[in-house]
Write a structure and sequence with these properties.
Elements: H1 3-14, E1 17-24, E2 38-45, H2 53-63, H3 65-68, E3 73-79, H4 81-88
Parallel strand pairs: 2-3
Antiparallel strand pairs: 1-2
Amino acid sequence: MNVQRRIEAKLDESLQLLHLEVINESGNHNVPDGSESHFKVVLVTEEFADLPLIRRHRTVNRILADELQVIHALALHTYTESEWRSRHGDAPMSPPCVN
């Protein structure tokens, strides 16, 4: 399983996600083709309600501890449903899909 799929699977198994995007941004950097070194993760869960940003990030970092040993950069965008909707409107969110 590649790194992107492992990130998706671990987050999906560990959190009650309303939305998940894992984007391999390695191609935007000076790395060989096919690299999995730079990722952006956007996730929405009510489990982040009342948690400051640092605790949200620590939660994700703990879940992805093994992956953080092999990737160079991880950009995290963590939201509750209301935070997501205030930024992106009322468009329905797609459920996470790891298949």
